[in-house]
Known about the structure:
Layout: E1 7-13, E2 31-38, E3 44-51, H1 57-77, E4 83-87, H2 106-115, E5 126-132, H3 145-153, E6 160-163, E7 166-170, E8 173-180, H4 193-209, E9 217-221, E10 227-235, E11 238-246, H5 255-260, E12 266-277, E13 280-292
Parallel strand pairs: 1-4, 4-5, 5-6, 8-9, 9-11
Antiparallel strand pairs: 1-12, 2-3, 7-8, 10-11, 12-13
Amino acid sequence: MAKKFDRFNIIAIADTHAGSKLGLRNPDFVIQRSVPKKDEEGIEYFEIEDYSPPMEPIQEMLWEKYTTARDDFLHIAGKDDPIFILHLAEVCEGTYFANSSMRLKKDEQVQIAVANMDPWKGIKNLKMVRILSGDRPHEFDEGSAGRMVAAHLKRDFKDVRAMPHSLLNIDGFKIDYAHKGPYPGSRKWLEGNVARLYLIDYMMRELIEFDRKPADLLLRAHFHEPVEVTHSMRFQGGKHRSMLLVSPSMKFPDSHAKTVTQNRFAATIGMSMIEVVNNKILDIHDKFTTVDTRTWEVYDG
């Protein structure tokens, strides 16, 4: 029988978009490129050399936030409490959105995505890494980005898989995790309304259609804005409580995102760690930063 965990931690990461100038990027990432040379006789030839593309200021900020969150989470978890990392898809940028692309090949985007997991290497109480499948534009039109990243990560992590929509059971605590979920809300005062209805619908489907207890925690992403709702439901003499978390992204909004959100100027980046004790959510540690994405200008003429 598997060892029962009295305490464990779930780290939710989403939408890192490796290969985007606005996405997460390990500064140590290097690619190879051909460089023209001349020998002593003036004959031109090419050599292969390692090259590190310049970091964008936004990438520098994202990496600092990412590694700081990692340090904070590990301090909370300590060296004993098990850690489970769930990446809620979009590990790569893909090739659709050229306006924010680093102009990298598929394999180079995968290399960045793999390098983005370097800060988690060597953590003895890290039990599992899961990477969800995302949207077609970010999966090279074939749903392969997560699978390729997971294959590389197997060298450094003992339990890595690429997954579709999944239901994870850790000692009876159930996590339903998928990439797409409810829209955060079209107006500030409406935030969470759609998410609450989404959660109620989910709970009723589990209870009525399948006659089983709903998951304790639902994790979703995609919309790059955080939402947190909880709902309790009485059914056939029992009481059931579930929580839904929509994770923010680790990518700044590009022109496509701004169009979809009707130029919403406030953007939140970050990640969360859910602390579970005796199969109950004890605390949620959010490491979020909300920024004003507008370009500020003062006329002084």
